[in-house]
Amino acid sequence: MLTAVFQEKVLSTIHYSREELISLRKKSLPFRCPHCLSPLNLRIGKQKVPHFAHHPQSHCKIGKQHESPRHLLSKQLLYDRLKLHFKEVKVEHYIKNLQQIADVYVKTESKKIAVEIQCSSIPISDIFSRTQGYQREEITPLWILTQPVKKKGNLHLPSFQQAFIRYSPQLHYFLLHFSPEERRFQLFTHLIPVSASAFISAAPVRIPIEEFTLPLSIPHPTVNRPHLLKNWNQFRMKWIYNKLHYGNAKDDLFLREVYREGDTFLYLPLFVGIPVLPHGLQFKNHSVEWQYYIWKDCMKKELFFSEERVVEVIKKRIDRGYLEFRSLPLVGVGGLLEEIVKSYLTLLEDMKVVRTLENGDLQLSEPWMCPDNFPGFERHQHDFFPKWKHILKKV
Ligand SMILES: [Zn+2]
């Protein structure tokens, strides 16, 4: 903790220099926890920002939690920065109705903002419930991920880190990350999934803490967004090969469906598994999977089909456990399935894979014959890629 009670006043280490704190400590003053009032030790080590700590025997539920050096440092840096902009900024602000502490709390004339810094993994359900709690109290939460993220070509995000993904019409799906050691934020925008945990992103936008303010503003007028989808089919093929190598038809629902249907996994039509921007990201399953179910349950079987029918097919697959949405507590989800289906069908129509009939129903432009050998599939590629390139130009 960065705060303690001393002589009925709240005192925070961030308001003192190291030297001042050392001389305070020499006086053995009775610092107490603001929540349980038990005595606290003032720690001034080399590794961490100076802070207060409970005695190991303490049972304090609110104030006693292990705080990593990154967490303490992040709190201090964000407090110092926001203090320059806003009059009312508090560190470790206790919100009584919620019985929880906001790492940094900002109150303006029109708004209350709670900054939540997350260095360690917590259950995603906690992010959901805390966000709802803040909203009930009319406080806007700003969740900041400080856990290191893995970027090796693609961005690799375990489910916990994906829970920090947010959405805006300008940035599409994006992740805000703060590195206290480097004193800067990184904003990964226009995320496009290539597997359950890997994403392509636009070049990250770096925001030094000296430029950070609330609401977050992006210093560069345009986000550098190279042709993210150029290598799409390579990622699609890589995913298919991985599934073939490591998947097991016994416990893999998707593989079992493909084999039972008698489809050759390698030669599925190329319009099964295309990226659907931006909301296709909501599916945890690869686009080959959910688009395959549309293909199998709808397009292949029914002469004509409607958009509503496709939505129904997907809903059924979700209910039966074949498909799943990602847990994204910071993104609203209402009506997205309809939007995803609409975007996908529009893409298919633009590529002339399907056509719209007069009554609004859809129909495959030509029946699909699954190739039984590679040359047959090559012919399909030859037909398909020019159409796909045409779509890419518009993205
Ligand atoms: Zn306590």
What does this structure look like?
This protein has helices at residues 18-26, 69-83, 124-136, 159-162, 232-246, 253-261, 287-299, 307-319, 336-350, 374-394, and strands spanning 3-6, 9-12, 40-43, 51-54, 88-95, 100-107, 112-118, 140-145, 150-152, 154-156, 166-168, 172-179, 184-188, 192-193, 198-200, 205-208, 354-356, 362-364. It is an alpha+beta fold and 395 residues long. It has three domains: 1-65, no CATH class; 66-228, no CATH class; 232-394, no CATH class. The chain has a four-stranded mixed beta sheet with strand order 5-6-7-8, sandwiched between helices. Helix 8 packs across helix 9 (336-350). The longest helix is centred in the C-terminal third of the chain and has 21 residues, at 374-394. The protein starts with a strand and ends with a helix. The model has no long low-confidence stretch (mean pLDDT 90). Bound molecules: zinc ion (ZN). Zinc ion is lined by residues 33, 35-36, 38, 54, 60, 63-64.
